[in-house]
């Protein structure tokens, strides 16, 4: 998965770098937009991996389903919290940085 994302991200940076940003504020907005996109991507990948591991664990040990589900929800909440914090910081960069 990382081998597919790296060339895509590199191409995106190349396109944005050659577009000729008008000012530092426009650059901050573009950087924040990229940051928000990466935050959402990270949240999605993290939650997908958590769900995959939880379902595998429940399939192997159905009697531990409650414990596994509780751990999955706690870790999922931590992933969401970190992602929401990064999105808030990106929004602050856009609106307060100008």
UniProtKB/TrEMBL annotation:
Subcellular location: Cell membrane; Membrane
SUPFAM superfamilies associated with the record: F1F0 ATP synthase subunit C
InterPro entries tied to this protein: ATP_synth_F0_csu, ATP_synth_F0_csu_DDCD_BS, ATP_synth_F0_csu_sf, ATPase_proteolipid_c-like_dom, F/V-ATP_Csub_sf
UniProt GO molecular function: lipid binding; proton-transporting ATP synthase activity, rotational mechanism
Membrane topology reported for the UniProt record: Multi-pass membrane protein
Signal sequence bounds: 1-24
V-ATPase proteolipid subunit C-like domain residues: 31-92
Entry-linked Pfam families: ATP-synt_C (PF00137)
TM region(s), chain numbering: 34-59, 71-96
Function: Key component of the F(0) channel; it plays a direct role in translocation across the membrane. A homomeric c-ring of between 10-14 subunits forms the central stalk rotor element with the F(1) delta and epsilon subunits. F(1)F(0) ATP synthase produces ATP from ADP in the presence of a proton or sodium gradient. F-type ATPases consist of two structural domains, F(1) containing the extramembraneous catalytic core and F(0) containing the membrane proton channel, linked together by a central stalk and a peripheral stalk. During catalysis, ATP synthesis in the catalytic domain of F(1) is coupled via a rotary mechanism of the central stalk subunits to proton translocation.
Species per Swiss-Prot/TrEMBL record: Limnoglobus roseus
Site annotation Reversibly protonated during proton transport: residues: 80
Family (UniProt): Belongs to the ATPase C chain family.
Record keywords, A-Z: ATP synthesis, Cell membrane, CF(0), Hydrogen ion transport, Ion transport, Lipid-binding, Membrane, Signal, Transmembrane, Transmembrane helix, Transport
Gene Ontology CC annotations of this record: plasma membrane; proton-transporting ATP synthase complex; proton-transporting two-sector ATPase complex, proton-transporting domain
Domain of life according to the entry: Bacteria
Protein's recorded name: ATP synthase subunit c
């Amino acid at each position: 998965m990382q081998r597919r994302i790296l060339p895509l991200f590199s191409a995106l940076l190349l396109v944005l770098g050659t577009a000729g940003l008008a000012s530092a504020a426009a650059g901050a907005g573009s950087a924040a937009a990229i940051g928000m996109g990466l935050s959402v991507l990270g949240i999605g990948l993290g939650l997908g991996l958590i769900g995959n591991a939880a379902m595998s664990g429940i399939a192997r040990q159905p009697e531990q389903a409650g414990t596994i589900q509780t751990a999955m929800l706690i870790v999922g909440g931590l992933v969401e919290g970190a992602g929401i914090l990064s999105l808030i910081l990106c929004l602050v960069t856009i609106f307060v940085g100008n």
